[in-house]
Amino acid sequence: MARRSALRIYLPLAFYGVFLMLPFLWMILTTFKAREELLNTPNPFWIFHPTFEHVVGLLTTTAYLQWFANTLFVSVASTILSVFVSYITAYAIIRLRFPGWQTVSTAIFLAYIVPPAILFIPLATIIIQLHWFDKLWALVPIYATFLVPFCTWLLIGFLKNIPRELEEAARVDGASNLAILWRIIFPIAVPGLISAAIFSFTLSWNEYLYALVYMSSSGNKTVAVGMTTELIRGDVFQWGQLMAGALIGVLPAVLVYFFFVEYYVAGMSGSVKE
To answer: Entry's PROSITE patterns (predicted)?
Structure first.
């Protein structure tokens, strides 16, 4: 009976795991297959003649390393900015209850549900007026426009679970709101902040539309934009280099989730860890 119960649980999970890993496996196979095998192979799920020509060609004949550095800079900077602003905003809405806080909370939720594709035209007008077009650092505040609403919404739910007694005790001891924010609330809110940071980093790393519209020079492109604009020429797809770029490009997000998955789950569930 116990064996049947285990099969009912683990067999579907095994099929689901294989289904999720198939795209990653296909990227690996395509990355290390010789060009001839990509066009004609008796077994698409096996590598008969492994090669690094696609990886070497990607790193030496394209500006992939520059695109990777650009993406890393924009993702880290926009994550830091968005989490910082969201943390302060969420605390102000939950604890300070300033005049109009309910309106601000509703506006943040509405901003979160607005698709980014609708905003890129008005944002383009602002960027042109500010002379920010084709400047890599301009993507940082641009990405914050869609990262801050979600992170604020996430942190509002997380901060609600922090007992008020901690803040009241600190105020009795003469602590200011700023001291409470950074010395009392911040250490407890670390799981929620890490969860928001992981979400922000992943979304920034995979963002395509804004980077495509606002960046034109090859030196300012991100990985997603550079690969689709530089490695696809007409109807010719450089599949080996495309898959090599995709394989390298997913590593930062995979590492972030691997090392911080416990905090991510805790933050998303709104729990507070001791």
So the answer is: ABC_TM1
Compute the C-alpha angle 92/98/102, nearest 5°.
85
Q: Do 84 and 181 share a structural domain? A: yes
Residue 66 vs residues 61, 136, 233: alpha-carbon distances, Å: 12, 12, 20
CA angle 22, 26, 27 (to 5 degrees): 120
Dihedral (Cα; 65, 70, 75, 81), 10-degree rounding: 150
pLDDT tens sequence across 155-209:
888 888 888 888 778 888 787 778 888 888 888 888 888 888 988 999 999 899 8
Residue-by-residue DSSP string for 106-121: HHHHHHHHS-HHHHHH
One domain, residues 22 and 111? no
CB 167 within 8 A of CB 185: yes
CA distance 90 to 25: 40
Same domain, 118 and 62: yes
Domain identity same for 11 and 69: no
Domain span at residue 93 reads 53-269
Considering the entire predicted model, what is its pTM?
Answer: 0.84
The reply to whether 104 and 71 lie within a common domain is: yes
In tens, the pLDDT along 200-222 reads 999 999 899 899 989 888 889 99
Q: Are the C-beta atoms of residues 225 and 211 closer than 8 Å to each other?
A: yes
How confident is the model over 48-88, as pLDDT tens digits?
Answer: 788 888 888 889 888 999 999 999 999 999 999 999 999 99
